[in-house]
Automatic annotation (TrEMBL):
<comment type="subunit">
    <text>The complex is composed of two ATP-binding proteins (PotA), two transmembrane proteins (PotB and PotC) and a solute-binding protein (PotD).</text>
</comment>
<dbReference type="InterPro" id="IPR003593">
    <property type="entry name" value="AAA+_ATPase"/>
</dbReference>
<dbReference type="InterPro" id="IPR027417">
    <property type="entry name" value="P-loop_NTPase"/>
</dbReference>
<dbReference type="InterPro" id="IPR005893">
    <property type="entry name" value="PotA-like"/>
</dbReference>
<keyword id="KW-1278">Translocase</keyword>
<protein>
    <recommendedName>
        <fullName>Spermidine/putrescine import ATP-binding protein PotA</fullName>
        <ecNumber>7.6.2.11</ecNumber>
    </recommendedName>
</protein>
<dbReference type="InterPro" id="IPR017871">
    <property type="entry name" value="ABC_transporter-like_CS"/>
</dbReference>
<dbReference type="GO" id="GO:0015417">
    <property type="term" value="F:ABC-type polyamine transporter activity"/>
</dbReference>
<dbReference type="InterPro" id="IPR013611">
    <property type="entry name" value="Transp-assoc_OB_typ2"/>
</dbReference>
<keyword id="KW-1003">Cell membrane</keyword>
<dbReference type="Pfam" id="PF00005">
    <property type="entry name" value="ABC_tran"/>
</dbReference>
<dbReference type="InterPro" id="IPR008995">
    <property type="entry name" value="Mo/tungstate-bd_C_term_dom"/>
</dbReference>
<dbReference type="InterPro" id="IPR003439">
    <property type="entry name" value="ABC_transporter-like_ATP-bd"/>
</dbReference>
<dbReference type="GO" id="GO:0016887">
    <property type="term" value="F:ATP hydrolysis activity"/>
</dbReference>
<dbReference type="InterPro" id="IPR050093">
    <property type="entry name" value="ABC_SmlMolc_Importer"/>
</dbReference>
<dbReference type="GO" id="GO:0015847">
    <property type="term" value="P:putrescine transport"/>
</dbReference>
<keyword id="KW-0547">Nucleotide-binding</keyword>
């Protein structure tokens, strides 16, 4: 028996006057999933989050939470809580009173003992036991974020909505909080929905990534699938870094397509859709899929123009005649002296079948719809 989705969109469209923010979305999210809504500004991800939370109503279609149609149900009547980007904590209240605020609004009223007990449990859950009487201004940014989480979780929602909650944190603290959120979601076992425009955040935190653009779902899948097997040119270009090489289909070899590049080099690439002889395509090559060597062992030869040393890895901008600049990423092996210097010649290779070819479209796939209905399979 298939479990009832925690969240389901059926033909959901949202318009603001003449502007369509979300267009005909069908989506089913199973229980206990961690889902990231990822896309550029204006793609509709925040609008979807707000419709789940009840802050917006669909112009068309239905939003269900655990099988219940939420039409007309106000936010405070939904089994949902939200953590906002700016946390929205009350500065005049201490930590415990911030966490307990929602419990004090509950009807029928809860006893003071139960409120204190549940607030304490929520603070323990986010590893802030003993911080109850501290003022908000006495906390670090990461601690404030955990207070916001405890306040959202204390009412035991079915779904927790996260509206770019890590945007205000520095990089190291953001990484720490990504791990804490992952662990917390697994411990309490409720569905988390994260809205972000940060590709690394979406890929590292979630079980499933829903890539949106132009008010539509472009691709939905596990992070590795989104990164390794992008559905179209937009996803390939938006999620992570990639090199896009323009070329023309010169032939076919089994499941691969042969692409003639601008400099005359012919490479074999995988494809997501049927491609015709002579068709103009873009070939995606991830920087980490490129291998670099001092000897002429690859199809491309170039000159290192820039090197960005990142500690465990190094990124190179390599100028290839007739192709342009390629971005390559290589591991740095301490003590092996394997770093290339700007101005140094280098050969560039890649494994067979690594490139992925896409038909070039006017909007780079920005408004293409991959599936009429998308469902996460848990």
């Amino acid at each position: 028996m298939t479990a009832v989705p925690d969240i389901e969109f059926r033909g959901v469209t949202k318009r603001y006057g003449a502007v369509t923010a979300v267009s005909g979305i069908d989506l089913a999210v199973p229980p206990s999933a961690f889902v990231a809504l990822l896309g550029p500004s204006g793609c509709g991800k925040t609008t979807c989050l707000r419709m789940i939370g009840g802050f917006e109503q669909p112009s068309e279609g239905q939003v269900f939470i655990r099988g219940q149609d939420m039409a007309g149900t106000p936010p405070y009547r939904r089994p949902v809580n939200m953590v906002f980007q700016q946390y929205a904590l009350f500065p005049h209240l201490d930590v415990e009173d911030n966490v307990a605020y929602g419990l004090r609004q509950a009807r029928p009223r809860l006893s003071s003992r139960e409120i204190a007990s549940r607030a304490g449990e929520a603070l323990e859950m986010v590893r802030l036991a003993g911080y109850g009487r501290r003022k908000i201004h006495e906390l670090s940014g990461g601690q404030q974020q955990r207070v916001a989480l405890a306040r959202a979780l204390v009412n035991k929602p079915a779904v927790l909505l996260l509206d770019e909650p890590l945007a205000a944190l520095d990089k190291k603290l953001r990484t720490d909080m990504q791990i804490e959120l992952q662990n917390l979601q697994r411990e309490i076992g409720i569905t988390f929905v994260l809205v972000t425009h940060d590709q690394e955040e979406a890929l590292s935190m979630s079980d499933f990534v829903c890539v949106m653009n132009g008010g539509r779902i472009v691709q939905l899948g596990q992070p590795s699938e989104i990164y390794d097997e992008p559905a179209d040119l937009f996803v390939a270009d938006f999620v992570g870094k990639t090199n896009l090489l323009s070329g023309t289909v010169a032939g076919h070899s089994g499941d691969l397509v042969e692409v003639a590049l601008a400099d005359g080099t012919v490479i074999a690439a995988r494809k997501r859709t049927a491609l015709q002889q002579g068709e103009v395509v873009s070939v995606s090559l991830r920087p980490e899929s490129l291998s670099l060597g001092a000897q002429a062992s690859g199809p491309f030869k170039g000159i290192v123009r820039n090197r960005i040393f990142l500690g465990s890895t190094a990124e190179y901008a390599i100028e290839v005649k007739g192709i342009g600049t390629l971005l390559a990423k290589a591991d740095h092996l301490i003590g092996h002296g394997n770093l290339f210097k700007p101005g140094e010649p280098v050969a560039i290779g890649f494994a067979s079948g690594t490139p992925l070819a896409f038909a070039e479209t006017k909007n780079n796939g920005a408004n293409q719809r991959v599936d009429k209905h998308v469902e996460i399979i848990s």
